[in-house]
Amino acid sequence: MRALAVAASALVLASCAVGPNFSSPPAPDVAGYTPEKLQSPGSDPAGPHVTAQRFVNGADIPTRWWAAFRSQPLNELIKMSVEHNPTLQSAEASIRIAQYNALAQRGLFFPQIGANYTPSQQQISGASNSGPGGQSPAVFSLHTAQLNVSFVPDIWGQNVRAVESLDAISEQQLFELEAAYLTLTANVVTAAIQEASLRGQIAAIQRVVKIERGILEIVKNQFNAGQAAQVDVLGQEAALAQSEQLLPPLQKQLAVQRDLLTALAGQFSADEILQKFTLDGLTLPANLPVSLPSKAISQRPDVRAAEALLHSTNAQVGVAIAARLPNLTITGNAGATGFNLAELFTPGTSFYVIAASATQPLFDGLTLYHKQKAAEAAVDQADALYRQAVVTALQNVADALRSLQADARALQAAVKAELAAKASLDIIQKQLALGQVNQVVVLNAQQVYLTAAVVRVQAQATRLSDTAALFLALGGSWPTDCPTRDWRACVFETHVASK
Question: Region entry Disordered: which residue ranges (predicted)?
Fold first, then answer.
């Protein structure tokens, strides 16, 4: 009871821990992400129709933000990835490590008690009369059993600050888990969009190849009829071969992309995922939530992790200061000693020692002083890293917004170019059948359409990818009402409404 009272007194004293108290940095004093008023992506009303998107200022981001693409295969793949990806499992283990370290540090608030039992056999020198019964030389056994108690009152709050630092590290690891979760889901979405883009490009090239084969048949028929030269046939064959040459690299990229998606899902490459993605199977989200800068900063896990690191380093300054101040250690031993085990429980064999020791560093070559200065410099470093994280976060959002504003115009231009190139090629193909155009015109029209078709697919995929990038830049939405251990089930069951 006395030890507990001492511990309680120490905790009261520790409430005035030395060192600076931490306070969260203020939110950035900005109201938007761009110098001008944010405008939703726009396109030319007179041009080809493209799906419109609208920025919704101040709207909340759904927990299952990827559901906005309305793809069931994508939903299934993300669930599989979140359940089986080793990166998330590693991040969860890091949280447990940090939490157990913090709990271990809390143990120093209490007395440390140990038990010791030492049996020995001794022989007294013949020159001594100190053996049992005053006889010498003597051989005898000695049994000692004791309890050892030590306690260091946390007078200056050194342990309080150490626990505070480790708790902040635990918090940092939680935010690292959030970041890993957000990065994983964004990577799966982006990889799926890239797979859809590759499939679209392959399909576009295959359409062009089919057209070029038809043109080749026309040219061959004209050559057989004496209406075309052999050079025209060879030129068309070369154009067809060049188009076909584009397919193997894209097919290789598609296979590699499938391997990437399989790995993100935590599967071996031999166990390829079943889900496949096309651009037609992905819906472009129409309403895009744009959080206020202060809200985005509070949602970004990398920024919050940087704040937790700042908190941890701030607490370490108190630890370093306390190490330079006087310290008190209380120790106590109580036990019994006897010539045999039975005597340990008889009167007259017990002993105890109670001692206190006060220490004050006097000269250490300025070691502790420089450790304190290093801790203070670490705070400056962590503060700079936090401010850089905030700047980067706002830059990421601004970049995504700028990209989306340009993407609508780029896609509209690509669609317009593809439609015009296809119409031109159709006319030239008919003229070729009538012998009204030369082969050079035909080859140029084929190349223009091929390029326009591929660019249109890439522009469509870019718009989808930049939409995912906006959700990533805004920090997604971590299910704060879910327990850490069961957050997977919480995301995919409790938050189905965010679909």
Answer: 28-48
Q: What's the burial of 261, exposed, middle or buried (CB within 10 Å: 0-12/13-18/19+)?
A: buried
Judge if 203 and 290 occupy the same domain: yes
Let me know if residue 7 belongs to a domain: no
b/e per residue, 275-286, with b = 16+ CB within 10 A? bebebebbebbe
Residues 191 and 85 in one domain: yes
Say if 307 falls within a structural domain: yes
Number of folded domains in the chain? Answer: 2
Cα angle for residues 88, 89, 91 (degrees, 5° grid): 65
Distance, in Å, from the CA atom of 388 to the CA atom of 409, rounded to the nearest integer, reads 32
Max Cα distance, the chain (Å): 136
Determine phi and psi for 40, rounding to 5 degrees. Answer: -65, 155
Percent with pLDDT over 90 in the chain: 65
Residue 8 lies in a domain: no
The CATH number for 238's domain is 1.20.1600.10
Using a 10 angstrom Cβ sphere, with 0-12 exposed, 13-18 middle and 19 or more buried, the burial of residue 337 is: middle
The residue range of the domain holding 77 is 18-109+155-324+366-498
pTM summary value: 0.86
The CA distance from 151 to 317, in Å, is 23
Residue whose token pair is 């979405």 = 189
CA quadruple 68, 74, 80, 84: dihedral, nearest 10: -90
Tell me how long the chain is: 499
- State yes or no: pLDDT of 133 exceeds 70: no
Do 340 and 478 have their domain in common? no
Q: How much is the pLDDT for 349?
A: 87
In DSSP terms, 56 is beta-bridged to: 289
Clarify whether residues 453 and 428 are in a common domain: yes
What does the pLDDT read at residue 434?
Answer: 82
Question: 262 and 232, same structural domain?
Answer: yes
- As beta bridge partners, residue 123 has 139
Question: In the chain, what is the straight-line distance between the N-terminal and C-terminal CA atoms, in Å?
Answer: 57
Spatial separation of the C-alpha atoms in residues 338 and 344, rounded to whole Å = 5
Instruction: Write down which residue in 312, 341, 359 finishes a domain.
Output: 359
Give the pLDDT mean for 458-470.
96
